[in-house]
Amino acid sequence: MSGYETNDATLAAIAGLLGTTAEHVRPLPQGVANQVFLLGDDLVLRVPRAEQFLPDLVKEAAVIPYALRAGVRTPEIVAFDDTCSVVDVPYMVLTRTRGMDLARLELSDADTERLHRQVGRELGRLHRLTPDTAPALAGVPADDGAADPWALTDGLAKDGWIDAETARWLSGWLDRLSTHLPTSAPTVLIHGDIAPQNLLVAPETAQLNGIVDWGDAEWADPAADFAKMPLTGVPSMLDGYRRETGQESSTTWEARVLWCHLTWALGRLKDPVPRPGERHWTAPPASRLLGLLRFFASAPPAPWADLS
Questions:
Q1: What gap in Å lies between CA 253 and CA 89, rounded to an integer?
Q2: Beta-carbon neighbour count of residue 122 at 10 Å?
């Protein structure tokens, strides 16, 4: 794997291009795909860790301007260079969004619900972008929808991860849940990683200041954008989404979101390697399954309980 090294000279050169100096370059919490630095007080530098992550940065450069025009709160791109012609690494510089990421905050229940509604409204704006309304994004990949939860269930039973009775119960749940799914779901531009660490929040007001990290953006069922947040926050997100889009309540939406959570939980169980140090709540292999248990054990609002 070819890596990109951000040594002092490289960081100083990028800082100089943006009108600041090496003394004003400070590291920020690092992501899986990117090294992140603060340039002065108002700019953020992102450098992919390795060549395999560069396509995601190129994708972000294309997607972010469309998200901004759709009214989504996200940082603006100030500079982008994927040629390595000026410095020896590709890089992106964005305006800084103030705040702490949601993963590091402990908010009251009322503030958390209000914040989740704000996130839902942002997704309502983003999901107005379709292949017809944003044809210039034709290079953005489309979700292939290849994951088959029945096949995952069978494989888990065959490999000894779950017992036969549990496999039958899971298959029956999937059968019942599938009756609520539409024949075909709409295709929209999704962020692809709406998760606590990518939501920047003003700690004093619990106001959503911005959504960051667009490297997983793709064309997909909009329900997939509700699948990387814990299910406990999804009812409030859907409430905000419906207020923004004017969509009426329907069991179909909850069923699609639950289908994603359950399918991905089974997939993660089939790949049970722990990932210590990763900040994403789904990094531990059992987190999604325990999240489902926690959600349904907490007397969720209608129509969720009817989907279990």
A1: 42
A2: 26
Q: What are phi and psi of 19, to 5 degrees?
A: 80, 20
Evaluate whether 197 touches 210 at the Cβ level (below 8 Å).
Answer: no
Query: Which residues lie closer than 8 Å to 166 by C-beta, 6 or more apart?
Result: 157
**Which CATH homologous superfamily contains domain 8-95?**
Phosphorylase Kinase; domain 1 (3.30.200.20)
User: Taking the domains of the chain in order of start, what are their residue ranges?
Assistant: 8-95, 100-307
Give the 3-state secondary structure of residue 243. Answer: helix
The CATH superfamily label for domain 100-307 reads Aminoglycoside phosphotransferase (APH), C-terminal lobe (3.90.1200.10)
Residues 166, 200: contact at Cβ < 8 Å?
Answer: no
Torsion angle, alpha carbons of 185, 191, 194, 198, to 10: 180
- Paired residues of 211 in beta bridges: 199
Closest CA to 238 of 122, 110, 120, 111: 120
126-142 residue pLDDT tens: 999 999 999 999 999 99
Cβ count within 10 A of residue 5 = 10
Which DSSP category does 142 fall into?
B
| Element housing 62 (H / E) | helix 54-69
Beta bridge partners of 188: 220
Q: What is the pLDDT of residues 195-214, one digit of tens each?
A: 999 999 999 999 999 999 99
